[in-house]
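From the thread on structure requests for the teaching lab: each student submitted one protein with a one-line request. Submission from student K.M.:

"Model Cytochrome bc1 complex Rieske iron-sulfur subunit from Streptomyces mutabilis, tokens only."
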Amino acid sequence: MSSQDIPEENLPAAQRGTHAPKPADDKNPFADPGLPPHEHRIQDIDERAAKRSERTVALLFTVSMLATIGFIASFVAIPHDKSIYVFPLGHVNAMNLALGLTLGVALFTIGAGAVHWARTLMSDEEVADERHPIEASPEVRAKVHADFKQGAKESVIGRRKLIRNTMLGALTLVPLSGVVLLRDLGPLPGTKLRHTLWNKGKLLVNMNTNEPMRPSDIAVGSLTFAKPEGLDEHDHGFQNEIAKAALMLIRLEPEAIKDKRELEWSHEGIVAYSKICTHVGCPISLYEQQTHHALCPCHQSTFDLADGARVIFGPAGHALPQLRIGVNDEGYLEALSDFEEPVGPAFWERG
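Reply posted by the TA:
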């Protein structure tokens, strides 16, 4: 079948004639003004202008690649807690600012390059295409294939190798931003989850008075919160450290303690347990004196502090870690070691 035998609407875009105006009639009461005459762009008639547009598009794609590299470099090189002053925003996190700017530039320049490419180098000739039945006839399939080949030809991607190569480079590099973020949403913990500031000889300091504690400071049935000696709330990283080292002290009658190890690790009935719930890490702050139960206010996990702080109710997965304590030569309560189990939620599932 020759091109003369194919209806005009089935021909590729470059082979179709201009859609002619159609006057109104009884069947179609609205006149069809047709398509305006096609006006050539400067790039269509001047190869030097086309080359300039090609270099512009390539430059945008190259900027995208550099911005993606800058994104990865910012993530690696900038400390996560560094802040800078930016007018008029004030103090902002330097890493977040750098990541936002570089990723924004990388994505914007890919889009801008694609738009500039389409507007200056791809074909801009308007073509009218009549509606057709949903079922695809052999002629329609032939038309689709022909249109695809013609579109690929009009995109000039085969002829404009500089655009093609830089576009492929930009599209290849920009997903690396997501790969880096998904790989590591924060510094790897290493062994930090297994260690706290508690160690042998570290004094127990009252959270309210900031004074070291003696056994006489803790009454039977009372609940007291403690932190390690030397940890000040104004210190850099205080929140990170107290989130692992926060301690609660309860004084029980020695004969009320059921767990043998708990009794050995206590001092005169004073037991020390991590304050961090083993469910999702909420701070435990409720204590029932008569039952010796500690209650997490977030999801009601309940721990028996007279029986190794085992879980007796709620979603917590395991008992609260106990800190072994004693008294130094001056009569102050001190830690005899760090926690033997990592504090916090779901550790056993993590490791």
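TA comment: The longest helix spans residues 47-77. The chain has two domains: 3-183, 192-350.
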